[in-house]
Design brief:
Largest sheet: 4 strands, mixed
Oligomer: single chain
Structural class: alpha+beta
Distance between the termini: 32 Å
Radius of gyration: 18 Å
Number of helices: 7
Shape: globular
Strand content: 5-15%
Length: 213
Amino acid sequence: MTLKFYMTPGSCSTGIHILLETLELPFESGSSTSPPGASSARVPQDQSQGYDPHARARRRTRLTDFKSIALWLAQTYPRGKLLPDDPALAARAIELLDFAVIQLHGEGYTRIFTSERYIASSEAQQGLHLKDDVASHGREIVSQAFGILEKRMPAEGYALGPQFSIADAALFYNEFWADKIGVPLPPRVAAHYQRVRARPVVRQVLAEEGYRS
């Protein structure tokens, strides 16, 4: 069965798109009907797993968040080395991925891109003023998070060293958003962003999604 990938260009699904192309996996793409910024993938089910009583009826598994899709890809296709063999480095990769998805995206960018979600219906009449306050708070969260990353990012290579990983894909889409909306990146984070962006696969993905490299 072919993997079906639902995406929105320029969203967090760009990170998953990069992982798919890095692994050179064939997939069918479709437009996401999930909330803005969501990723979704239907992955082939291992039909040898006879212990699952629902396996025959459910031939595919749908994964709907960045972390689950990224981990599934890394563990299903270990030849791509998207998750380090060393347990400590693998844990570090997941830690960085969580930081990117939960802190940067979940706490910061959602306030910038979907400010209305943080305004009570009783306060909606205050409109743009409150939205601006929420978005400003989101920018502060994003800037502070990049400041934390700056202290932990290596001076050269990728987030974990010379090997590109799922952590780099997660960090990249957050760095990409910062670039697009004018949030300054500290030096080492900015260098990481440029190194990832210079990868031929990443340039290809951005071109396919309508962005100039």
